[in-house]
Amino acid sequence: MSQYHLQKLCRAVNNDPAAREKYLADPKSLISQFELTDGERQALATLDIDALYDLGVHPLLLKPFTVINGISQDDYLAALNPESGK
What we know:
globular
């Protein structure tokens, strides 16, 4: 069920301006409102794209979430494909 909450958080940040504002101002405050594992919290805190993907965040949620967090397209793709050498 935790994967559901992780995706729900990403969806809230992506689609709800109030949630996005709260997340950008104080990520821990919004994250604490969701039932997440320690690993999920760590992946969010460090913006570990590969880990978030491996934890089950759908790419249609993950990509806009990374854009909101200022992660470039190149960094996003490199995180999802570390063998590419970028």
